[in-house]
Design brief:
The protein is an alpha/beta fold and about 180 residues long. The chain has helices at about 30-40, 50-55, 65-70, 95-105, 120-125, and strands at about 5-10, 40-50, 75-80, 90-95, 110-115, 130-140, 155-165, 170-175. The protein has a single domain, classed as 3-Layer(aba) Sandwich (Dihydrofolate Reductase, subunit A). Helix content is about 25%, strand content about 30%. Strands 4-3-2-5-1-6-8-7 form an eight-stranded mixed β-sheet, with helices on both faces. Strand 7 and strand 8 (about 170-175) form a beta hairpin. Helix 1 (about 30-40) runs parallel beside helix 3 (about 65-70).
Length: about 180
Amino acid sequence: MRKLVVGCLVSVDGVHGEPRSWVSEYFDDEAAAKSLAALARADAMLMGRNTYEYFAPAWPQASGPYAERVNSIRKYVFSSTLASVEWRNSTLVAGDPVAAVRELKAGGDGDLVIYGYGRLARTLLAHGLVEELRVDVNPVMVGAGTPLFQPGERRPLALASIERRGPGVVTLVYVPA
């Protein structure tokens, strides 16, 4: 059975929304290499509508090994409001995401990955479908924005590992408790 890995970027003060405005100085060559290695272990990306609309305009024009992998990997876009998806290798999934991900996990060899901790990731974690939650804590206080966890959200997790990288970024890897 495939493993579902959720990776998210967060500031020290708990903000994960709009990371492009605050994470670039912390995404160094080491981070790019680790991200590319994780994508190499995966054979599909899962994303909700917001992430798709955030990524789809930017990545097709990007170049380099990381962009080539992001553009070539199979992408499943979960949305009940999109009519179609145009990004190469993208498939629209309009039905129940829990049932669809259970089916995806049963087939294939590589990991499934989600970038960001939005509604799709929260739903899949709540239904026991996430094997690993990777939280990159970046050494910056943003002051305002979308918090990583929603009020009232409670999920028991166990710390599996801690990794420190370059300019003070700490990756906390959690698994369901």
